[in-house]
Amino acid sequence: MGVRQPVWFDPMENLSAVQIRVPASSANLGPGFDALGLALGLYLRCTLRRSDAGLKVISCGTYTSEIPTDSSNLILRTFSRWAGEQSLDSVHLAIHNEIPLGRGLGSSAAAIVAGLALANEWAGLERSREELIQAATDVEGHPDNVAAAVRGGLVVSCQRDDQRVISTNCSIAPELQIVLVVPECRLSTEAARAALPAAYSRRDAVFNVQRAALLMQAFRDGSRELFAEAMRDRLHQPYRAKLIPGFDEVLQLTNVPGLLGAALSGAGPSVIAFCEARAEEIGDIIAGCFRKHGLNAEARLLKVDHQGVIVERLARVEA
C-alpha cells in the first residue's frame, strides 16, 4: 500500500471530525513475557476536530486527572509524528478515558495507537495496520500491548533482528471468564523493568518457553488441566512480586473453585485472572489479597475486545 505525505488541509476539505476507540490490553499473561497481549473491553475514546482558536484538549472519564491538556499530551505527540507539527495549531481533541494509568493495562500503548491512527485518517495517509503496529512499537519500545490494541483479541508478537514487528491473532475460548483486579497503587514500567535480572539460567528460560507454548493451547480450549501449569512464570513475576504488596498471595491461590489461573497484567500492579465460573467471587478473593496489605482494590469482569482500534471519519454535511 502506498503512503501519502500529509498535505494540509486540501485532501480533507470535507472532513468534520475523526472519532477513534482503542482498547486496553494485558501483556505477558504469565509466561508469555514480552510476547503475548490480550485486548480488553476498557477503552480510550477520542474525537479530533478542526479548531480555529488554536490547540485545545479536553478530557473526561474515570482516569483523566493526570492526562496533560497541552502539546505534551502523548496522543498529540504521536499524532504529530505522522500528521506534522503544524497540525497541532488547528485541532481540538476530546478524550474520554476508561483505562487506569500506570496499572499495567496498556494505557500508554492505547494513547500511542490513538495518536497515530487519528493522524492516519486525519491526514489521509492510508497506512496499513502493520505500519501502525510498527510505528507504535517504535515509540513504545515493545510490540505486545500495541499489537493487541491495534488487532484486538489474543495476539502474539515479536521483533526480528532488524526490529521489524511480526504479529498474529490466536484463538481464545469464548467461554473463558475474565476478571481484572486493580489495586490502588502505581508501578512504573521503568521500576518494573529495573527489578528484573540482567540474565537468566537456561533452566528458567526453558521453563517459560514450555509453559508459554502450553498456554496457547490452554487459551484455545479453556482446559483447567493445562491452565494450572501453563500460567507459571520464572522470568518476571517472582522479581516484581516484591514491588506489589499482596501479589505473592495471589500467586499462591490454589484450589479456588472456578479459577483457572492468574497473572500480573503487564508489569503490574493489576492482576488478570481467567475463570471457568464464579469470576465475580474470584475477583473479591484476589482483591482481598491486596486489602490485607492496606491497598484498596477494585475487581471488575471484562470481555475480550476482538475489534482492536476502530476509526470513524465524520464528513461535513453541506448546507
Structure description:
The protein contains ten helices and eleven strands. By secondary structure, it is α+β, with helices and mostly antiparallel strands. The protein folds into two domains: 10-168 and 305-315, Ribosomal Protein S5, domain 2, CATH 3.30.230; 177-302, Alpha-Beta Plaits, CATH 3.30.70. The strands form two sheets. Strands 1, 2, 3, 4, 5, 6 and 11 form a seven-stranded mixed β-sheet that branches. Strands 8-9-7-10 form a four-stranded antiparallel β-sheet. Helix 2 (107-122) crosses helix 4 (144-151), helix 3 runs antiparallel to helix 4 and helix 6 runs antiparallel to helix 7 (224-230). The longest helix has 20 residues, at 202-221. The radius of gyration is 20 Å and the shape is globular. Mean pLDDT is 91; it is low at 1-12.
Task: Fill in the keyword field for this structure.
319 residues, alpha+beta, Alpha-Beta Plaits, 28% strand
Summarize the structure.
With 319 residues, the protein is an alpha+beta fold. It contains 10 helices and 11 strands. Strands 1, 2, 3, 4, 5, 6 and 11 form a 7-stranded mixed beta sheet that branches. A 4-stranded antiparallel beta sheet has the order 8-9-7-10.
End-to-end Cα distance, whole Å, is 35 Å
Shape: globular
CATH classification class of the largest domain: Alpha Beta
Whole-angstrom Rg: 20 Å
Low-confidence stretches: 1-12
Overall structural class, as computed from helix and strand content, comes to alpha+beta
Percentage of β-strand residues: 25-35%
Written as H for each helix and E for each strand, in order along the chain, the element string is EEEHEHHHEEEHHHHHEEHEE
Number of strands: 11
The main sheet comes to: 7 strands, mixed
**What number is the mean pLDDT?**
91
Report the CATH architecture of the largest domain. Answer: 2-Layer Sandwich
How many separate domains make up the residues?
Answer: 2
Tally of DSSP helical segments = 10
